[in-house]
Amino acid sequence: MTSLPLDPSQSESQLCAELGQALGLPEPVSATVLQAALASDSYARSLLASRRTPQMLQMLLASPPRRTQPKDRHSTVELLQRGSQALLGWAKTGFSTTDPVEREARSQACLQCPHRRAPGASLLQATRSELGVCGLCGCPLSRKVSMLSETCPGELPNDPGMNRWGQAMNVNEQLH
């Protein structure tokens, strides 16, 4: 499957234009469609899979999933940037997901993390998971723990250099 060519340094309108182009549309997608694609991996996959079926694509574009969440400290632009980076990284793995044992271990680490928060108001944080949202990066934890390409941005308190999922942290993660 082709990845969405979203550059996280672009504005929301530029990202809408890029997604529209990736879907073969003559115009940008709406901000609501972009946010829904970043918030829902199944919606993003459905959009990509429907590129060659115009009728199905138009139905998906006309009815993006909508969810409302309480207010959070992460800006929409920040979440768009992080979400597009996560989506691109995930696409590069062929949309690979963690095995059930690893997913459970990641979930348990997140449930015990002091940075875990209730979902925010942004559509980009929409989640029905009891796991909530990572307070460090703003990602919906139910999605983050399932995506093989994702890592935890939180440092393990008793083991500097390791994240809460037991992985070595890289320099970029330590800067967050």
Question: Could you list some keywords that capture this structure?
Answer:
176 residues; 8 helices; elongated; two-stranded antiparallel ribbon; 2 domains; mainly alpha
Tally of individual helices: 8
Query: What is the residue-mean pLDDT, rounded to a whole number?
Result: 81
Structural class of the secondary structure composition?
mainly alpha
Q: Strand order across the biggest sheet?
A: 1-2
Fraction of residues in helix: 40-55%
The first-to-last residue Cα distance is: 30 Å
Order of helices and strands: HHHHHHEEHH
Number of strands: 2
Oligomer: single chain
What's the Cα radius of gyration? 16 Å
Q: Uncertain spans, ≥5 residues at pLDDT below 50?
A: 68-72
The general outline is elongated
Q: How can the largest sheet be summarized?
A: 2 strands, antiparallel
Strand content: under 5%
Quickly count the domains: 2
